[in-house]
Amino acid sequence: MGKLSKQRQLHLGAFIFGVGHHVAAWRYPESDTNGLLKLDFYRQFAQAAERGKFDLIFVEDIPVLPEQWERAVNYTLPVRAETMTLLSALASATKHIGLVGTVSTTYNEPFHVASKFASLDHLSQGRAGWNAVTTSLDHTAKNFGRDQHLEHSLRYERAKEFVNVVKALWDSWEEDALLMDEAGAHWVNPDKVHEINHQGTHFSVRGPLNIHRPPQGQPVIVQAGSSTTGQAFAAQAAEVVFTAWQTLEEAQSFYTQLKSQLPAYGRSSEELKILPGILPFIGSTEEEAQEKEAAFQDLVLPTVGYGMLQNMLKVDLSSYPLDSPLPTLPDAAEINGGKSRYQLLLDMTRRENLTVRQLIHRVTGARGHRTMAGTPKQIADLMEEWFVNEACDGFNIMPPYLPGGLDAFVDLVIPELQRRGLFRTEYEGTTLRDHLGLEKPINRHAKR
Amino acid sequence: MRTTKQTMHLGAFLVHPRAHIKPSGYTHTDAQHIEPFKLYEHLAYSAEQGKLDFIYLADSQAPSPEPLTFLSYLAGITTRIGLAAAVSTTYYEPFNLAREFCCLDHLSGGRAAWKVITSGSEAEAHHFNQDHPPALQQRQNQAQEFLDVAYSLWDSWEDNAILANKESGIFADPTKVHELNHRGEFFAVRGPLNLPRSPQGRPVILQDADSEAGTLFAAETAEVVFTTSQTLEDAQHFYQKIKSLATAHGRSADQIKVMAGIYPAVGISEEEALQTFAHLPLTNASSHRLVYGSPSQIADQLEEWFAKEACDGFVITPPNSAGGLEDFVQNVIPELQIRGLFRYEYEGTTLREHLGLSRPQSRFQAARASSEVLHSKEVQDGKIK
């Protein structure tokens, strides 16, 4: 392929979650359940993703056990490595791949977060990305001295200000503020280090940051809430959006809607990449893939299924038999949790008339993201269909179990995508911004 | 005098020379020209080559790596050395910090250590929505409660809580995972932590003892105490004091290690050391005691302090060059090894093992064990049928 035929290509994330995304992953014989929280397990994951030339690995984060935590620890694997420590430890185990992690804007200080991501960006030589989320669970508040969670729109208001402060802190050192080569003179050029003097509703932060400018200028900003408020936040600040859609049409409509909001903020369509999640069960035949998916469903104890529904829907369905139809669920406006995922599940149950068991099967794997059981070719077909029809700019790949689930994708699906010219065969740049085709931001203090 | 044959403990500070010394008297590659991240990485490698107990990232002047990310990065490129950093409790949430150190302890295979400090600087307060830092007493009270919450979070999963039985589908025993339901003056934290107990049980706790209140807090909770004593007598006095205070708290004297700060200037001979370092502005050489001379003269001085119970070991501030720690590692460490004063190889894998510190039992496990003992005694006594 010559330079002339340079076509738009997919961007791929490898999403690590426990020992796999399926709720029963830890029980699956091939899963490395004992590897959990050992560095080698995560290294193997990151290196496999790098072998597959993924743009990034992604670590999500919830600073709390599930609300019904006794049941969760009894029957599921609810422990999660902490984002920043994990990504930093992986910086030395990889060379190219982007390192993206979730850190909540609800229970942190912008100064700490700015300093951690700047540090990670230095340690990885320009590969850091921050998924700036708002934390939506009331029981999380109880780990942070509050009884109730911040109301939805207030959470986003705080998040917006939080991200602005972090970005101002990343700019507080100009590119050439550190003068390491000039012996005997100043080590730091004080004219190029700036206070930010932020005084806002939620934060007052003087600055400057305690770390010089990160290699990417600013780590990549990622966002992962698809509600109306979430979209407005993304249109203004995000460079990558993680999202969950079941059908091509839904994904297309979200894609168009979000991209159309960019010009209002002076941004072009290329400046934001939309990556829905997909959970692939891969088989050499379609039947084999479906058998694999069924094998995972068999490992889900009913109590686990009911528990997941309760966490996601805030409704206790345990009095409804597995094969009975679902009761009428409240509208999204009536809940104070994550709204977009709730709406997605609501739409799905109404559209498909699901039973309790069927809905359980939908959430135990991908938690609302698209699941696909098929051959490498079929999975590549689906990805291509969504990609060429402008439903996405790529995908966040959610292996159902680890490490084998990612290896299968890397060894079987990636080559198929590469053959079709849909995915890179080598890294071309060195930073995460390079991989994603995002410009390095110009420092607001730089003389033009 | 120490009566039994013991070996000393050694740690190394990761500090950038430019953070506290003006450029002069450099004999090696000038560290001032090295980016802080690269310099610290280099120092950590040297320290592990020297079989040191730990490296320690101080809360230093900018620019400096953020401590938790940096220690985690080092966890990926080292295998045995302990990883310590100072992190202030003043503007942190205990749940977040406890979790970060717990995860570091998991990923490093049991090498995490935390020096508990508070933030008294005006400038720092301005980064965190405050006009002024809290008063000293309040900061210390907050730190005390913070540490107490952290202990409970680290202990909230008992050691044997996870069964991970793939056959039965039982992941963990919920009766061995505990809520804290802590409600104190500064914090309200429900718990449990979303991470199981880490290899060391709890990260090793380091503290300074530079004030009376600090000394009392350290005696109660610190497992390693840094001292900046300048004379043998002062150091011996401090050593006796902190150990007896610790004993008064029901702790064993050998479970709190006193480590004296030194700033070693290593020369081939005493003359060379003097020549090289004579023009160093000593007031800037941190508050650590300058120890200079040939390798064997330095070893003599360390041996004297160690043997006369002025300390259990030393924390080294590398002189102002990238080669400063290498000089110590290549020349002084072998001298200490020959004298039987320092390890040739790491014997254990965790920092607690390097330091000879026992692994703390989970509070919740301990409470349960004692209630079970009580219960069985009551059964024996016929109080419960």
Q: Would you give an account of this structure?
A:
- The complex is a heterodimer of chains A (448) and B (385).
- An eight-stranded parallel barrel of chain A has the order 1-2-3-4-7-8-9-11, surrounded by seven helices. Chain A has a two-stranded antiparallel sheet with strand order 5-6.
- Chain A contains 15 helices and eleven strands.
- Chain A has 448 residues and is an alpha/beta fold.
- The model of chain A has no long low-confidence stretch (mean pLDDT 91).
- In chain A, helix 1 links the parallel strand 1 and strand 2.
- Chain B is an alpha/beta fold.
- Chain B has a single domain, classed as Alpha-Beta Barrel (TIM Barrel).
- Chain B has 13 helices and 13 strands.
- In chain B, the strands form three sheets. Chain B has an eight-stranded parallel barrel, surrounded by eight helices. In chain B, strands 5-6 form a two-stranded antiparallel ribbon.
- In chain B, strand 3, helix 4 and strand 4 form a beta-alpha-beta unit.
- In chain B, helix 3 packs parallel to helix 4 and helix 4 crosses helix 6.
- The longest helix of chain B has 20 residues.
- Chain B is globular, with a radius of gyration of 22 Å.
- About 4% of the residues of chain B have low confidence.
- The chains are: A alpha/beta (448), B alpha/beta (385).
- The interface between A and B is large, with 78 and 60 residues.
Q: What keyword list fits this structure?
A:
heterodimer; A: 448 residues; eight-stranded parallel beta barrel; globular; B: 385 residues; alpha/beta; TIM Barrel; two-stranded antiparallel sheet; 13 strands; 40% helix; 16% strand
